[in-house]
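does this look right to u?? MGD version
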Amino acid sequence: MVRRTHYRNCNLCEACCGIAIEVENNEILSIRGDEADPFSQGYICPKATALKDIHEDPDRLRTPLRKRPGSDEFEPIGWDEAFDLVGSKLREIRKHHGNDAIAAYQGNPTVHNLSLLTYGQIFLRSLNTRNVYSATSADQLPHMLSSLQMFGDTLRLPVPDVDRTEFFLMLGANPLVSNGSLMTAPGMKRRLKALRDRGGKLIVIDPRRTETAAVADQHLFITPGTDAFLLLALLHTIFADGKTNLGHLSNHTDGLDAVRELVAEFPPERVAETVGIDAEEIRALAREFAAADRAVCYGRLGVSTQRFGATCSWLINVLNIVTAHMDRPGGAMFTTPAVDLIRGAALIGQSGSFNSWKSRVSGLPEFAGELPVSVLAEEMETPGRGRIRAFITSAGNPVLSVPNGARLERALSKLDFMVSIDIYLNETTRHADVILPPTFALEHDHYELAFYLLSVRNVAKFSPPVFERTAEQRDDWEIMLELSRRVANTWWGRALGNGANALGNRADPRRMVDLALRAGPTKETVKSLLGKPHGVDLGPLESRFPAQLNTPNGRLNLAPQIYLDDLDRLRRALEATSNGGLLLIGRRHLRSNNSWMHNSLRLVKGKNRCTLLMNPVDAKSRGVSDGELVSVRSRVGAVEAPVELSDEMMRGVVSLPHGWGHHRSGTKLSVANEHPGVSLNDITDDRFYDELSGNSGFSGVEVQVEAT
Ligand SMILES: Nc1nc2c(c(=O)[nH]1)N[C@H]1C(S)=C(S)[C@@H](COP(=O)(O)OP(=O)(O)OC[C@H]3O[C@@H](n4cnc5c(=O)[nH]c(N)nc54)[C@H](O)[C@@H]3O)O[C@H]1N2
Ligand SMILES: Nc1nc2c(c(=O)[nH]1)N[C@H]1C(S)=C(S)[C@@H](COP(=O)(O)OP(=O)(O)OC[C@H]3O[C@@H](n4cnc5c(=O)[nH]c(N)nc54)[C@H](O)[C@@H]3O)O[C@H]1N2
Ligand code: SF4
Ligand SMILES: [Mo]
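got this back:
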C-alpha cells in the first residue's frame, strides 16, 4: 500500500486554492485545504472535495463517441477513427461552404487548462474562420475592452488590492459565493474580515442583498442595468467638488477635460430615481471614496453582463484613476506574473483588437478575434454565404450558458456536423456527431497561466499529474494538435501540428511554460517550481504605470472615443420610462460551478436551489405565495420554477440561478438528471445585449411572473 499526498491548485474557480490530495493505491482518500500554500493558507470551499466525484464519475467520458448515423445513440469508437471522421467532415464542409462555415466555441474551463490555453488557442486561430466564440462575451469582455482602450492590452486587467485597501466599493459581484472574479484571492471571507478589522469599509451595490452584502458595512439596492448612471453621478460629484487627483499618472493621462464635460450632465438628482439610490446617498459615497487614502472601486459580472457593460467597466476605471486609486497600493493594481502573457501577446502582435469586422447578420463587433455569443444562433440559422454549418465546442456548454440557449439548441440540431471536446455527454455535447473526451484535471500538469495575471499577490505553482492517465486517454493538447494536423487552415497551424506531432512529448505544454518562465521576470523554472509543491509567494503587487502602458502614444486614455460615441444610447435609456415589469437577474451558489458540476451528489443533494427569488411585496400584488410554482416569461420563452419569497430581493427584481436545466434527454448525467432545475438562459434574450461591446445582457431582462 502506497499512501501519498499531492499538492496542487483546485482548478474549479478563479480563487485557485491550494489543495492536498491524499491518495492510496490510485484512490483518493481525502481532499483538504493546503495549510502550507502561502496564498490560500488552507482555505477551500465545498467544491474542492467534489473534484473526487468528477474524477471518479462513472458518467465521465473516457473514450471517443460517435453518433450512430440516423439515430440519437452514441457508440464508442477509436481515436484514429474519430480524428479521421472529424478531419474529413470539417475539410469537406470548408471546401463547399468556405472558411467561415466552421465555427468554434470555447468555454470557461479553458482558462484553467494549460492545454487549451496553449494548443487550444493555436488550433482555433488556425481555422481561419470569423466564427470563433467563447464564454468571454457572456462574461468579462467589457473589462478586457476597457483595458485595451485605456491601457493598450486586453489582458492588462486591474485587480483590487483587497489586502491593503481601506475602502472597497463593490458593484455586481458576490465573492463570498463566487470566491472572486478578475480577483484571484482565495479566502475572501478572511480577507474581507481583515479589511474591516483594520478599520476599513466594504460597500456593496447589488439588486440583491447577497451573502457578501450581508457582511458589508453598507449595502445599497440598485435597479439592474443602471450602474453606468450611478458611476456618472459619482464622477459628477467628484468633479463638481474639485476633488479630482490623478496622482502619479497626472503627466501620463489624456482626456480629463472630456470626462469633466461629460459627467457635468449627470448630477445625482438626475439619475437617482432610475438608479434607485437617493441623490444625497450618491454624493456621500462619492465624497467618501475620493477622500479615502486607499480605496478601490471594483465591478464584476453583474455590471459586465448588462446593456451598458462596456460603459460600466470604463467608468469604474475612470473613477479609480481620477481619485488616484489606480496603480497604487490599496487601489486597483496590476500583477507581475512569473509568466508574462501580456508581453508574449504583444511580441506576436496580439495585444488586442476591436471592431475589425462585424458579425454577418446583426453587425455586432469582433473583439480579440471573436464574435459575441449573442449572435451564434442567428449565424447558424440565417442562410447565405458564411452561414455556420459545422461547430466545434471545447470545454463549453453553450446550450445552458448563452442568452436564449433554447434557440441555440434548435440551431444545433440543424447543423451539418458538430464535434465536442468535453468530459461529459451533456446538454450541448448531445448534439455532437463526435465527442472527444480529454483527461480531467488530476490527470495532467497544472499551472495557472491566466489567473496569476489576476492575483492579488504575485504567486506561482506548478503541479504534475496526481494520476497517470491510461493508455487510451488523450490530453486536451494532444486532441488539439491532432485536429490542427488535420484541419488547420493556415500554413503555421499545419506546420505546428506536424512539427509538434513529430516532437511527441517534448512539445507538451510543460515545455512551453518552462520557456515562458525562463523569459519572465523571476528566476523560476518548471524544475524549480516542482521543488516547491505548495507554491511560492513572489510578493505584493507593485505600480506598473507608466512603464507598462501599451497604448499607441504610450499614454493613458481616460476618454476613448468608442465610449463617447455611445453616449446617446445612454441618454435615451435614462429618459425611457419603465413599464412596471419585473427585471430578471441571475445568481450563483457555493455548491454550483456554472452548469457542469451538478453530477456530483454531494454538491446537489438537499433542497431544490433552482428557485425564483422574489420580494414578498411583488408576490403579493401578483397573488403568488411562497413555494408556489410560477411561470416566468420573457420575449423568448418561459420556464416554471418554485417561488422563494425574500426581502433580500429589491422590489421589482427577481432572480433565478444560472447553470441548471438538466432535464434534456439523451445526456449521460445520471445525478444531474435527478436534480434538473430549469435553465435561466431559456428566458434570457439574445437580442438584449450591450450594443457597444456585443456582450450578453443577462441582468435586467424584463419578465412576467404568474402562478401556474
Ligand atoms: N444567464 C446567465 N448566463 C451565464 C452566466 C450568468 O451568470 N447568467 N454566466 C456566464 C459565465 S460568467 C460563464 S464563464 C459562462 C460559462 O459557460 P460555459 O463555459 O459554456 O459553461 P460551463 O458550464 O462552464 O461548461 C464547461 C464545460 O466544460 C467541460 N469541461 C470541464 N473541464 C474540462 C476540461 O478540462 N477539458 C474539456 N475539454 N472540457 C472540460 C464541462 O463538462 C462542461 O461541458 O456562462 C455564462 N452564462
Ligand atoms: N460557486 C460558484 N463560484 C463561481 C462560479 C459558479 O458558478 N459558482 N462561476 C465562476 C465564474 S465563471 C465567474 S465569471 C465568477 C463570477 O463571480 P461574480 O462576479 O462575483 O458573480 P456573481 O456571483 O454572479 O455575482 C454577480 C452579482 O451581481 C449582481 N447583479 C446582477 N445584476 C446587477 C446589476 O445590474 N448591477 C449590480 N450592481 N449588480 C447586479 C447579482 O445580484 C450578483 O450578486 O464566479 C466564478 N465562481
Ligand atoms: S474556492 Fe472552491 S472551487 Fe474555487 S478554487 Fe477554492 S476550493 Fe476550488
Ligand atoms: Mo465566468
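The chain has a mean pLDDT of 96. idk if thats expected tbh
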